Amino acid sequence: MQPALDIATPTRHARRVLAPMIFLAMLGFAAGWAWRQPLLDTPRMLWRISRMPPATALPSPVQGVPARAIAATFGAPRGSTRTHAGVDIFASRGTPVRSATAGIVITVDERGLGGKQVWILGPGRERHYYAHLDGWAEGLHEGQSVLPGDLLGHVGTTGNARGTPPHLHYAIYGRQGARDPLPALRAWPGQDPPEH
Fold this sequence. Notes:
With 196 residues, the chain is an alpha+beta fold. Helices cover 22% and strands 28% of the residues. It contains 3 helices and 11 strands. The strands form 2 sheets. Strands 3, 4, 5, 6, 7, 8, 9, 10 and 11 form a 9-stranded antiparallel beta sheet that branches. It is elongated, with a radius of gyration of 25 Å.
C-alpha cells in the first residue's frame, strides 16, 4: 500500500521559505526608510565623507572672491615662532563665508588666535578651518552636516585679526598637518560655490 500524498507539504514548504524572505524584505525597506530620515543626516554624511579621498579641487569659501585673487601666503613667517598654516582671503566685512566641502561641523567656537571659528571634518578625514569670522550662520551647530556652498558665517576680524583688514583665514589639516589650500582652490572650475 502506497502512503497517502500530503498535498499540504508543498504549501508548508513554501511558507517556510517565503516567510523569512518577506520578513527580510520588510526589514530592508524599514532600514532604507530610516536611513533617509533627517535624524540620520550626520551619520549619512560621516559615511559619505569616510569613503571619499581628500579634495583636490575646492570652491572659494568667500562668496565673490575667486581663487586668482587669493595671495599665496601659506608658509609665510608669522612672528618669530610660527608660519602661516593657511591662506587669508580678504573681502568686505560681512561677506558670506560658505563651506568649501561636504562634511560635518565639529567646532563652532570663539577662542585663541582664530577668534570666531568653524571647523569642518571633510573628505579624507581632513579638517577645514574657517577663522576670524564676524559671526556665524543662524542655527549653525556642532554635529550638523554641510554641503559645499552652505553658509557658515561672515568675514570679520576676530581673534588676532583685530586691527587688520577683514578677511577669512582658511586652512586644511590632514594626517600630516596643514596643507596649502590654494592649489585646490585654483583647481576649481567655477568661481563661487553653489548657494543654498
